[in-house]
Amino acid sequence: MEKRYELDRYAAVYAMRTGSMVSSEVRDLLSVTERPDIISLAGGLPYTQIMNGEMISTLFAKVMREECAEALQYGPTDGLARLKKEIAGIMAAEGLEVHPEDVVITHGSQQGLELLSKIFINPGDVILTESPSYVGALNSFVSYQPRMEGVPLDGQGLDTDLLGKRLRALAVSGERPKFLYVVPNFHNPAGVTMSMERRKALLQLVREHELLLIEDNPYGLLRFEGESLPPLKSFEPESVVYLGTLSKILSAGMRLGWFVAPAPITEKLLLAKQSADLCTSSLTQRLAHAYFATQDWRGVIEKLVQIYRRRRNTMLEALEEFFPEGTSWTHPEGGFFVWAKLPEYVNTKDMLAAAIDQKVAYVPGMAFFPDRSGANHMRLNFSYPSEEQIWEGVRRLSLVIKRELKLARSLGLADRQGPPTDAERTEE
Ligand SMILES: Cc1ncc(COP(=O)(O)O)c(C=O)c1O
Question: Is residue 335 lining ligand 1, measured as CB closer than 6 Å?
Answer without folding.
Answer: no
